[in-house]
Design brief:
Elements: E1 3-7, E2 10-12, E3 18-25, E4 33-39, E5 46-51, E6 57-59, E7 67-72, E8 77-82, E9 91-98, E10 105-108, E11 112-116
Parallel strand pairs: 2-11
Antiparallel strand pairs: 1-3, 3-8, 4-5, 4-9, 5-6, 7-8, 9-10, 9-11
Length: about 120
């Protein structure tokens, strides 16, 4: 049974930085595409960053230039470096794993809260 566990969230001032981590317990293929998504209060879930097995990345316009996604397959870990945080980045952030065969999300975490406030 694969579980994704996020960590690294917290309270940060505007302009600050946080680094989120997502560790997969159990065996998960390195061929999975990994996403970070977020859900803010009263809003729909938004995928903010994606990284394929080949290391190709993609970002939502709202975070482009500020967030960086990376992965360490040897450690079964995906990271989200968030710089220049804004109050509108406040949300619960989730790690998700998408199958390269079915293109469906097979695994997802419980989320970690990020709050940007002065």
């Amino acid at each position: 049974q694969v579980q994704l566990v996020e960590s690294g969230g917290g309270l940060v001032q505007p302009g600050g930085s946080l680094r989120l981590s997502c560790v997969a317990s159990g065996s998960i293929s390195s061929t999975y595409t990994m996403d970070w998504s977020r859900r803010a209060p009263g809003k729909q879930r938004e995928v903010v960053a994606t990284i394929t097995s080949a290391g190709r990345t993609d970002y939502a316009d709202s975070v482009k230039g500020r967030f960086t996604i990376s992965r360490d397959n040897a450690k079964n870990t995906v990271y989200l470096q968030m710089n220049g945080l804004k109050p509108e980045d406040t949300a619960v952030y989730y790690c998700n794993a998408k199958s390269p065969w079915t293109l469906t999300y097979d695994y997802w975490g419980q989320g970690t809260q990020v709050t940007v406030s002065s």
